[in-house]
Specification:
four-stranded mixed β-sheet, globular, 324 residues, alpha+beta, 14 strands
């Protein structure tokens, strides 16, 4: 991946096209592809495509803090094998693929001799850019003696759809609800990828306030009535979790009565210990995965938890079987 100085990002302004147009163009990377409405060149992360890649195409309504966090993470993880491949037509970025060796991927998957294709994001559709990006990723993986694994969706509009990857020759290794763990190009004898088994238990009773549970807190020990656990993957927003930030703001009026904890799937111990890449639990009850949580919903979840007993075991929502 072509490395960019994280300081460059300070010159960008989300939603300000004139400022973006003043970016210095990068030199690009090796490789070109014909047949996609012209000639594609393959580049890494560089000033000409930085904002589009780090905002995942949401240039005009992006969160600057998340963009900066994602940029820092992508640059920092290059030595660990994370790669951004950007399809360009001239100096115009058309889409990108984000890949990382599966053994270090901040996702709830496991495998060997494979590269995880975390996402394919196309800015201009109906030009064959998505197919070209996947084929480029397959070629790069093959040159390293690896195949490609994708976590696809059976019924989600536009985002990593199973049908698209099936047409490109990917097979299904495992299904979990609406998710499909798919693969192509794995070396002979390689173990098929699998989903990690999710594990989560509510905070033990002695951690909750007197009157809500039995037991007493030790000297200096916090005694929250509500514990919020936010699991997130840094592959999307870097080390900044927007959902955790929203939950913290909602918890502020309650002081020590509410504790918010963050768990990054980028931490191997967290990933292997919990087998969860994205979820929010409020006193052991899982919030349905869907759109990013907003202030009103976050406040409501905390208020509800303050008025009910914490369950003895985790209450799972079936959206654990949905991708993001």
């Amino acid at each position: 991946m072509n490395r960019s100085n994280p300081g460059h990002l300070g010159r960008l302004r989300c939603g300000n096209r004139k400022q973006r147009d003043r970016w210095v163009k990068g030199d690009g990377d090796a490789g070109q592809e014909r047949g996609c409405s012209g000639e594609l060149s393959w580049r890494g992360l560089e000033p000409a495509n930085l904002l589009k890649v780090c905002s995942c195409g949401h240039v005009d309504d992006c969160d600057r803090a998340l963009v900066e966090s994602r940029h820092r993470y992508l640059v920092a993880q290059a030595d660990a094998g994370l790669e951004i491949v950007v399809a360009h037509s001239g100096d115009r970025p058309l889409g990108f693929a984000e890949t990382v060796p599966i053994e270090g991927a901040a996702r709830d998957v496991d495998g060997e001799e494979a590269i995880l294709l975390h996402c394919v994001n196309v800015f201009e559709r109906d030009r064959g850019v998505g197919r070209a990006l996947v084929e480029e990723a397959l070629g790069r993986a093959a040159r390293r003696g690896r195949g490609i694994v994708v976590d696809a969706c059976a019924d989600v509009w536009g985002f990593m759809p199973e049908e698209f990857f099936s047409r490109l020759g990917f097979g299904v290794a495992q299904a979990r609800g609406r998710r499909r763990l798919m693969h192509a190009g794995l070396p002979a004898g390689a173990r098929l990828p699998r989903y990690l088994e999710p594990h989560y238990a509510p905070p033990p009773p002695h951690r909750l306030a007197a009157g809500r549970a039995t037991g007493r807190a030790g000297p200096g020990e916090a005694r929250p009535e509500v514990v919020v656990d936010v699991f997130f993957t840094p592959l999307c927003g870097g080390l900044l979790s927007k959902e955790a930030a929203v939950m913290r703001r909602a918890a502020e009026p309650y002081g020590d009565r509410v504790l918010v904890r963050e768990w990054s799937a980028g931490d191997a111990e967290v990933r292997q210990g919990f087998g969860i890449a994205r979820a929010v639990f409020v006193n052991g009850v899982m919030r349905p995965n869907g759109d990013t949580i907003g202030p009103a919903e976050a406040a409501g979840l905390i208020a509800e938890a303050l008025n009910r007993f914490a369950p003895a075991t985790a209450v799972w929502d079936d959206s654990i079987s949905r991708l993001f």
